[in-house]
Write a structure and sequence with these properties.
The structure is a homodimer of 221-residue chains. Chain A has eight helices and nine strands. Chain A is of the alpha/beta class and 221 residues long. In chain A, helix 1 runs antiparallel to helix 4, helix 2 packs across helix 3 and helix 6 crosses helix 7. The longest helix of chain A is centred in the first third of the chain and has 19 residues. Chains A and B meet through helix 1, helix 5, strand 8 and helix 8 of A and helix 1, helix 5, strand 8 and helix 8 of B. The structure holds a DNA duplex (22 and 22 nucleotides).
Chain lengths: 221, 221
Amino acid sequence: MSLPRLRRRELPDATIARLPQYIRCLSQLENAGLQTVHSADLAAHVGVSGAVVRRDLSYVGSYGTRGVGYPVSELRDSVNRALGLATEHRMVVVGVGHMGRAIAGYTGFAERGLRVVGLFDVDPELIGAKAGNPALELLEILPLSDLAGFVSAHDVAIAVIATPAEAAQSVADLLVGAGITSILNLSAVHLSVPDSVVVRPVDLATEIQILAVHAAARERK
Amino acid sequence: MSLPRLRRRELPDATIARLPQYIRCLSQLENAGLQTVHSADLAAHVGVSGAVVRRDLSYVGSYGTRGVGYPVSELRDSVNRALGLATEHRMVVVGVGHMGRAIAGYTGFAERGLRVVGLFDVDPELIGAKAGNPALELLEILPLSDLAGFVSAHDVAIAVIATPAEAAQSVADLLVGAGITSILNLSAVHLSVPDSVVVRPVDLATEIQILAVHAAARERK
DNA sequence: AACTGTGAAGTGGTTCACAGCA
DNA sequence: TGCTGTGAACCACTTCACAGTT
């Protein structure tokens, strides 16, 4: 009998994306008083196959019982731990247009261990105004010139770029200089950053375009 | 010598996502008077390798010249055609919060062959108000009860769900009933729809969570 | 009998490396 | 010589299918 593998505890991105969905489902089950859950139940809730769920849970190192299922609350704790939800990750949002406000005001970050702590913009009309999640304290919008100081003072590692495309690269340079290591890029352009910095691009226009191309292909067929 | 393969002209999603970036770059080069471009140039602009660019362009069936490169304007036309940019794809946005407004007001859709033609919400305070891209005509926000009629009357195939999680599934049901075939789901929950309907989920909180988990892993190391 | 955990095969996409052609 | 076009290897993730365990 070999010990459970302790080596690389690297979660695939696809798994990380599903774990919070399992957590939400597990919390509901726990409230409903359920003690155990099958991979198939979680699978149905998240819209994947049971095999995916079992594979995901094998990564978090939490074991179910063959023939029975998974213990609901232990499993939820394990998944929480795998996601590192004990520590709060602070982030800043640069660009307080509609998209920036949508993120600043999103109420679902707390349960994911995330928190927006700073808002930045160049527009003098916006600077000094307040925005954010009304359930927490509203945040004052600060000028970009305060960004570097703020990031180091508040030990922020994650930034969201929600500026127009033209400003995105210069904001990224600023963020990197300030010590940010992870960037969510909502602008439509590719950002050049050092290898030590991780960028995830999300472009809603591109997502819709993918839908449109497939829709056109289906119509044609 | 075998004819160029005419069979499945299916573009991979990853390729579809990059083509608009090539287009933007090609337009710039064309304005600058350049006649030809190397795969490496496009690659640098988009942040991928030259091999990816060549593979992508081989899908669109546009041929460069070995030893020389690609003809800029012919290539742009080919890419435009591959993306089906000649026909305009109409879409509706359901949920006119910050996220919905960000999409309704986005000015980059036109160059991608996309257009928001309808806005819908349940909030009586919002219904009747106007929102959208100020460069075009502003759109009146309509009640959900108008959705089905609107979709069939205006031949809309694509919808964006930008509602809170609780409303998302019922909105999806409504959209499917109305004949929508493609949905961009910005809510955090999985949507159940018939196989004939394509859903692309985009959850910004999840994207940030992926960054946070990786950041935590790097710190730990 | 029921359900987990996981090798092994399959899939979609990227990277390598090089043959082919101007 | 220089750059394209593309088989083949590779990689990350999913799916299959079944052995293992209670």
